[in-house]
Design a protein that fits this description.
By secondary structure, the chain is mostly helical. The protein folds into 3 domains: 56 residues, Arc Repressor Mutant, subunit A (Orthogonal Bundle); 43 residues, Arc Repressor Mutant, subunit A; 44 residues, no CATH class. The protein is built from 9 helices and no strands. α1 packs across α3 and α7 packs across α9. The longest helix has 23 residues. The termini are far apart. 21% of the residues are buried.
Length: 160
């Protein structure tokens, strides 16, 4: 092995070590980890990055499914709805199929979550049309679909 090959192998080993440290702190999507490795190790060739990712996948240290499960649970616990979470998963490189599977697997009650948010953040939503609309906009920003918002808030009171 010549000097250049040794340097490349050392860089790949450093990248693997760095990736394992990152994964030890929190789950990452495959796309997210590739981006971080390329930023941290610009001298690595694409095939070396692919080899590092391949080893992580082979040993089940990196899993888009596990990442999606963790992110869904985290965002739902923070009061975000299914549209917001699906959009974030897409940005992070998770396929729509994996995202849908994991959303179903979590078995979250989105209606109960929306009702809880309304009760906590907008308890007077039924007192006037303006307050109802404010609560509806809040849920929409949090990523809840319109049909779920309507069920969580009930009928819009007419202005008196």
């Amino acid at each position: 092995m010549d000097l250049i090959e040794e340097a490349a192998a050392l860089d790949a080993a450093k990248a693997l070590s760095s990736a394992l440290r990152m994964l030890g702190q929190r789950e990452h999507s495959q796309r997210e980890l590739v981006t971080k490795l390329r930023r941290k190790f610009p001298e690595l060739a694409d095939d070396q990055v692919d080899a590092v990712i391949g080893e992580l996948l082979e040993n089940d240290w990196l899993s888009d499914t596990r990442y999606a499960e963790t992110l869904i649970r985290s965002r739902a616990n923070r009061g975000y709805g299914p549209h917001y979470i699906a959009r974030e998963l897409s940005v992070k490189g998770i396929s729509a199929e994996t995202a849908d599977e994991q959303m179903e697997a979590q078995g979250l009650d989105w209606l109960a979550l929306a009702v809880e948010l309304v009760q906590r953040r907008h308890p007077a939503a039924q007192e006037s049309a303006e307050l109802w609309q404010r609560a509806a906009r809040y849920l929409q920003r949090r990523g809840f679909p319109s049909d779920l918002i309507a069920r969580a808030l009930g009928d819009c009171p007419y202005p008196s």
